[in-house]
Design a protein that fits this description.
The protein is mainly alpha-helical and about 1450 residues long. Helix 34 (about 885-900) runs antiparallel to helix 48 and helix 41 runs antiparallel to helix 44.
């Protein structure tokens, strides 16, 4: 990059390399980790038996053995291995098992570790064999040998070696005993001495559990280590056979050298040097093959093998499914307990006596309203009454003990009843009513289901694959029927024994689920009670303590000034625009901008802008342009302090400083705000003119550089980043302890073996230290690759330097501190090759094993452990760590559905004209594949450099022009097929149109100018065109979506990382702004300004030679010029400051922040990587739904009316199909859910898709606790309402049939009356009976009947009003009829006469009259009345008809 900066414009180099590192090294590379993790998880689920079931941490003190019982059988019996099995006395056994003995041994181990860490190099002539460290080692070895002998004597040898920990202790005892032998001291046996520090893990139970969780199930991790070692051995052997014959190549001459070279490629440190040397040695013919060989090995080792270690560690950190559910309940319960307690800063008021504010009233007029009595004031009387009752019960005589006990029980029961009444709320009453309704509805549904099963209605149907909606619907119905039904109702007589056993297991399973439901509801009630108790406690403190919730104990609670400050502090932009009539949220065009404006309050927006302006002003500061001497820079300082003073005063007056519920200092963010303000205020008031190096003034300037961290507090999402960063501090701390322990072990070993042995004379011709004196001439090379041709007798340029016997410049092992610093640099995989080469060259080749083992353990396990812990903590903070597999898939499905959008594809034209043919051509798969091949062919043109002076460039550009015209033809065909409006709906089409337009512009400029800029523009157009191919393949689209969504979700993490980098850049300018140039501090990489410091820190983030930059900033006299007056006049560094600065920055950025990006990529990759096609919605299901939605949403607005949902559900096929013959009830539930949730309005694409997703999964397995309760509540309500509607419609149908029968009966009666009147008028013709002539017109008959007088009371009959609507409406117009009510009968206004003779009627009709007609004639209301009364009673019992229904819908019975 630095060479590109010197050769090209600076902005081009920065843009190219920074984007390259960001996308390839931070995003695309981490996608491989996500792929390996997800693949490993799927393999683990499928092959669970390969690794065995998970087991919890078991004690090593117990084991199980087979013993023969009295009956001759065998049984497993737990045997305690700590049970005394040796021959030691009981007192010694008791002492050995005591905690005091164990703590004494561990303390001795700690002392031994401290003594070993205190060892250092004392000089060449010092006798090392019998110094104080050797004597201490002998004493500790004897002590631990006695400990082992005591344990063997107490436990017996068999009982001793049965424990894995005792085996490890015995190995250390044997090794350290051999190590104290003088000839073996400071040899490879030193490993046994330094490994004693591992025993200190037993001190912390949390650390012990963490180590067991990672390394306990060693089958997977051990297998992976063996696989890695085998891969290295095989690849080393292959490379040895391939390159051992190459001359001038010494990297593969022997197997150890080949192994070291391949291991170096595995660690990515200097692997390019290995490949370059091999390429130069093999020649140009075989160079491409060799390059492909090394690149493939490097990619496999770094992208796949290291990712496998991360996957294994994450799998070890994963909890069991049942344990996850248990922890979910425990965590919810713990959250409820936490919410119940007030913070300590508020509970301090409870230590003071209550001083409520009292009001003294002399007169109490009748119209004076009595004030509300405080609840805390009334509680003392309730308690006193209970005490009086208990005292009265205690005073009762003993003779009446039975009555006393009875009164006590009654009082206790009464108190319990009152307590329960007080505790119950409106929600519990509603829940009880809802439970009764659910029970009634489920009883009806269960009876219907059982009747259908018994009748065999499911048999004889063709076998068809049921949709996931149908399967989940029947699962829920069966679960509810089993849960609410009894065993006698569920088990029929004809079932076999296997069926009964299965039903019994189902019953047990559903009873367990019911018990889990009760626990969930109990936890929910506990949360509500905790919130209520917290509010009650605050109210009591507010009532009884006048200074509670008073800012600074001065401003009143409801003071006008405080209310004004609250309004100012809490004023924010209302991002949600709601409809004033319906209350629905409006979807505005600029809703993303509105959401951004409503993210924080107006006051916080002002402070964000002021803080950013202040940070921009600080970027112009440098050691040569200081704020103390630049008045223009002081303006921003004054503005920041003034605005922050106003902000803090407003917030303190509104919310209080510390002792209020919403105080400014209620968390770490408030403390940081006050700290930044005080530092800025002190610096502004002091403004020192001279700042000496390593002084308090320089420290104040460094603390002033924390100002950008204010944005973390002001932006809520940034606070979330900080919370995710520090919430998992415990696990990160444990990993750090493990790595420090590993470093301490190897550092102690390195001190004892390499102390003083790495020093060498700077003159390469001098070997012994005695000859290393005087001066010698050193040549100076301008460049490594520049060979100067010297004249005869001319020497190379150089200068004379003194000979010095010294250690390597950047590392040594003379003491534990320097050794741990060297190993920390090696742990970052930077500079370890140099350490290896120095150790091999100056100590011996056998000692190269030391650094290789440390690099393997630190890199493969230590760093991947850091990655795994950060990912696990990120998942835990997001709430996904405790999710089961089904719950995690459900969360991924919800996130994937949020990203899904309707197809912006217009339908095919109706006719078969030109547009329809174009549509068929552009949508054909062959056409799409052809375009993809053409895009790849055009991209291949960039494999050759486009140089204006090269004649090959013109044909390449001409071919690119031809491809551009083909793409123009493609876009034109799509516009014709879809119409311009339809083409513009798709984002992909817009991108294609943009790239094609740029291509046309390039073609015009190319033929007009034909220079280097047009060629560069043409190359850029080809690159932009290449990105369009990613959306034309499912897998590429999935990976592209992973990267894009990861960039979107990691925006605030990237911003947070930039703010940290900005703080370190400001501090680096103060600390190292004037450091002299060295090996890596040069004119490109230095801290002279904030901009260059940001560039250097970005380079350190990538890990590129960060340790060398740190050592350049540690330069001390006599290699620099000190100045004690001001820090900007010296060119020396700061040793302690550089050590803390660079190490902390590298750990925070490289080990934590970058691993958060890995966690986000892993999380987002799981959204699009789903192989469980049979459980959740797959890509094919989503695609099918998008196509159906595109058919229903003809306006392409993304919303449809609610009534169209029915048509959409009917059109779905495949796994989302709803079969109305089998699942008509499910269809009704889904339609009513849309109507209920959206009040009959419009529904969006995501609304229907969300409803289908809920219906397609098993909510008992996939949903979390709170979401599960809410969803079951909704589904119960929907089932109840649908059941009511179904019953109502069924009753209407029944009554329609009854009315039809009554209409038929009444028509027969009417004909009988007419025929009877005709017979009587013809034969009898009595003068006392007045008859009317029949008419063909029914209206005439009604008019005649209405004018007939009454003849006799015996001839009056009751006529039914429960008839058909036609007949009833004819009589309803009579004015003389009274209005009828619901469920009543009424008399007709004009009775119709009928004859007493029935025989004539029977004679007239003969055999045509039936028994039913006769019964209707004799009593026309008997059948209808009986049916109607039964329906009326059942209807009144099952359903309550709303009073606001119209008379047309009411049922008259």
């Amino acid at each position: 990059m630095y060479r590109a900066i010197d050769s090209f414009p600076r902005w081009r180099s920065y843009f190219y390399f920074i984007t390259l590192i960001f996308f390839l090294a931070w995003l695309v590379k981490n996608v491989f980790i996500a792929v390996i993790i997800e693949t490993f998880a799927e393999i683990r689920v499928q092959f669970q038996q390969m690794w065995g079931s998970r087991s919890s941490t078991t004690s090593t003190a117990t084991t199980q053995m087979f013993h023969e019982d009295a009956a001759g059988g065998w049984q497993l019996v737990a045997v305690d291995v700590n049970k005394p099995q040796g021959r030691a006395p009981a007192c010694l056994q008791k002492m050995m098992r005591s905690s005091v003995f164990h703590m004494f041994i561990l303390s001795m181990v700690a002392v031994d570790v401290i003594v070993a860490a205190s060892n250092y190099y004392k000089g060449e002539n010092f006798k090392r064999q019998y110094d104080e460290f050797y004597l201490a080692e002998v004493a500790f070895t004897v002590l631990f040998d006695l400990e082992a002998l005591l344990k063997i004597w107490c436990l017996g040898f068999t009982g001793y070696i049965s424990s894995s920990l005792h085996k490890f202790e015995l190995l250390l005892v044997v090794g350290t005993t051999l190590h104290i032998y003088p000839d073996l001291y400071h040899s490879q046996f030193t490993y046994f001495q330094v490994l004693r520090v591992v025993r200190l893990i037993k001190i912390s139970p949390a650390l012990e559990d963490f180590v067991y969780k990672i390394f306990g199930p060693g089958k997977k991790l051990g297998s992976l280590v063996v696989f890695t070692a085998s891969l290295l051995i095989v690849m080393s052997a292959i490379s040895l056979q391939m390159f051992c014959f190459v001359e001038e190549l010494d990297r593969f001459t022997t197997f150890p050298r080949a192994f070291m070279s391949m291991f170096q490629i595995l660690t990515q440190e200097g692997w390019v040097d290995v490949m370059d040397q091999t390429l130069n040695a093999v020649g140009h013919m075989w160079a491409p093959v060799v390059a492909i060989y090394f690149i493939l090995y490097h990619l496999f080792a770094t992208l796949i093998l290291l990712s496998l270690f991360v996957a294994v560690i994450l799998d070890n950190l994963e909890l069991d499914e049942d344990l996850k559910k248990l922890k979910q309940l425990k965590q919810s319960e713990a959250n409820a307990d936490t919410k119940e307690k007030l913070p300590l800063r508020l509970r301090i008021f409870e230590k003071f006596p209550n001083r409520p504010q009292m009001v003294k009233i002399s007169k109490l007029p009748s119209d004076f309203t009595v004030p509300k009595i405080r609840e805390s004031f009334m509680k003392q009387f309730i308690d006193r009454q209970q005490q009086d009752t208990s005292c009265l019960l205690r005073r009762l005589p003993s003779a009446s003990s039975s009555s006393c006990d009875h009164s006590k029980r009654s009082a206790i029961e009464e108190n319990k009843y009152i307590d329960q009444k007080l505790r119950k709320s409106v929600f519990s009453i509603r829940a009880r009513n809802l439970l009764e309704k659910e029970t009634a509805i489920n009883k009806i549904l269960r009876a219907c289901t059982r009747q259908r099963m018994l009748s065999g209605s499911f048999e004889g149907q063709p076998a068809k694959e049921r949709s996931i909606l149908s399967v989940q619907h029947h699962i829920r119905q069966e679960r509810r029927s089993l849960r609410h039904g009894s065993n006698s109702q569920r088990i029929s007589r004809g079932k076999s024994l296997e069926t009964l056993t299965q039903d019994h297991s189902n019953t047990v399973r559903y009873r367990n689920a019911q018990r889990e439901d009760s626990e969930i509801k109990m936890i929910q009630e506990k949360k509500e009670q905790a919130e209520m108790k917290r509010k009650v406690q605050e109210e009591e403190l507010r009532e009884n303590h006048p200074y509670f919730d008073k800012p600074l104990f001065i401003v009143g609670r409801e003071h006008r000034f405080r209310n004004f400050c609250r309004v100012v502090v809490r004023a924010r932009f209302n991002a949600s625009k709601t409809d004033p009539v319906t209350g629905a949220v409006k979807n505005t065009k600029y809703h993303q901008l509105y959401d951004l404006l409503g993210l924080v309050t107006y006051l916080d927006w002002v402070m964000i802008i002021v803080t950013i302006c202040s940070c921009i002003s600080m970027m112009f500061e440098s050691p040569f342009r200081r704020v103390m001497h630049a008045p223009t820079l002081q303006i921003a300082e004054y503005v920041f302090v003034i605005f922050m003073s106003i902000e803090l005063n407003l917030k303190i007056m509104a919310d209080g400083l510390f002792f209020t519920p919403t105080a400014v200092i209620r968390d770490f963010g408030g403390v940081m705000d006050i700290f930044i303000y005080l530092v800025s205020l002190i610096f502004l008031c002091w403004m020192p003119q001279n700042v000496p190096a390593k002084s308090g003034a320089q420290l104040l300037m460094v603390l002033r550089c924390l100002r950008p961290l204010r944005i973390f507090k002001l932006v809520p999402q940034m606070r979330k980043v900080v919370r995710e960063l520090f919430s998992g501090f415990k696990e990160i701390f444990l990993v750090s302890i493990l790595l420090l322990t590993l470093m301490l072990v190897f550092a102690s070993f390195g001190v004892q073996l390499f102390a003083g042995k790495l020093a060498k004379c700077n003159d390469p011709h001098i070997i012994s230290r005695e000859d290393c004196h005087g001066i010698f001439r050193i040549n100076v090379s301008v460049s490594k690759n520049l060979n100067l041709k010297l004249r005869p007798g001319e020497k190379k340029p150089g200068f004379w330097v003194p000979r010095v016997w010294a250690n390597p410049r950047n590392f040594n092992f003379d003491n534990v501190g320097n050794a741990m610093l060297a190993l920390f640099e090696v742990l970052s995989l930077k500079g370890w090759v140099e350490v290896r080469d120095v150790i091999i060259h100056r100590v011996g080749p056998i000692h190269g094993i030391y650094i290789h083992v440390f690099v393997f353990l630190g890199c493969m396990i230590g760093l991947t452990l850091f990655v795994g812990v950060v990912i696990a903590n990120f998942n835990e903070n997001k709430g996904t760590a405790l999710l089961t597999v089904d719950q995690r898939r459900w969360e991924d499905l919800k996130s994937r559905l949020k990203i899904a959008q309707p197809l912006h594809l217009p339908p095919r034209p109706d006719n078969d004209g030109f547009r329809a043919k174009m549509y068929d051509i552009t949508q054909h798969p062959f056409f799409k594949r052809t375009i993809a091949v053409l895009v790849l062919a055009q991209s291949v043109l960039l494999s050759v450099k486009w140089d204006a002076a090269d004649p090959v460039t013109v044909p390449l550009a001409t071919m690119s022009v031809v491809f551009t015209f083909i793409f123009v033809l493609e876009v034109t065909m799509k516009i014709i097929a879809m119409s311009p409006a339809g083409f513009w709906q798709s984002r992909r089409n817009r991108y294609d149109l943009l790239v094609t337009s740029l291509g046309v512009i390039w073609v015009i400029l190319h033929f007009a100018l034909l220079n280097a800029y047009t060629y560069m523009m043409g190359a850029c157009v080809i690159v932009f065109r290449f990105f369009s191919i990613c959306g034309k393949h499912v897998t590429l689209k999935m990976l592209l979506l992973t990267v894009v969504v990861s960039m979107y979700k990691s925006f605030f993490i990237i911003v947070g990382m930039f703010l940290l980098l900005l703080c370190y850049a400001f501090a680096g300018v103060v600390l190292f702004g004037t450091v002299k140039y060295g090996e890596n501090i040069n004119r490109h990489a230095n801290f002279s300004s904030a901009g260059k410091a940001i560039t250097v820190l970005f380079r350190i983030v990538t890990g590129e030679d960060w340790n060398k930059i740190m050592h350049d900033c540690m330069v001390q006299p006599p290699f620099c010029t000190p100045d004690n007056s001001t820090y900007w006049k010296t060119d020396c560094g700061n040793y302690a400051g550089a050590l803390m600065y660079f190490c902390s920055f590298y750990v925070i950025i490289a080990y934590i922040m970058l691993n958060l990006l890995v966690a986000i990529i892993v999380e987002n990759f799981s959204l699009f990587y789903s192989t469980e096609e049979d459980q959740l919605l797959s890509y094919n299901d989503l695609r099918h739904f998008q196509i159906i939605w595109n058919m229903v949403d003809d306006k392409r607005e993304g919303v449809i009316p609610t009534f169209r949902v029915k048509f959409l559900l009917r059109l779905l096929r495949g796994r989302l199909e709803v079969d109305l013959d089998k699942d008509k009830l499910l269809f009704k539930h889904m339609c009513y859910e849309m109507e209920r949730l959206h009040n009959g309005g419009d529904v969006t694409f995501h609304d229907v898709l969300s409803m289908l997703s809920y219906r397609s999964v098993d909510i008992r397995k996939s949903l979390q606790l709170e979401e599960l309760l809410a969803r079951e509540q909704l589904e119960y309500t929907i089932e109840e309402e649908v059941a009511k509607q179904t019953i109502r419609m069924w009753l209407k149908k029944c009554l329609k049939r009854i009315r039809a029968k009554q209409q038929q009966s009444c028509s027969i009666i009417h004909s009988l009356r007419e025929s009877q009147q005709q017979e009587l008028s013809r034969f009898l013709n009595p003068p006392s009976i007045e008859t009317t002539q029949p008419s063909e017109d029914m209206n005439a008959i009604n008019q005649d009947n209405s004018t007939q007088p009454e003849t006799s009371s015996q001839q009056q009959l009751l006529s039914p009003t429960l008839s058909d609507r036609g007949g009833y409406r004819q009589d309803s117009g009579d004015a003389g009829k009274p209005q009828r009510k619901f469920g009543q009968w009424r008399l007709p206004s004009a009775p119709k006469p009928i004859s007493h003779s029935v025989s004539s009627v029977n004679l007239r009709f003969g055999g045509r009259s039936t028994m039913k007609s006769v019964a209707c004639k004799m009593n026309p209301m008997s059948d209808a009345a009986s049916c109607g009364s039964e329906v009326k009673k059942w209807w009144t019992r099952q359903l309550t008809v709303e009073s606001d229904e119209s008379g047309e819908d009411l049922l008259d019975i």
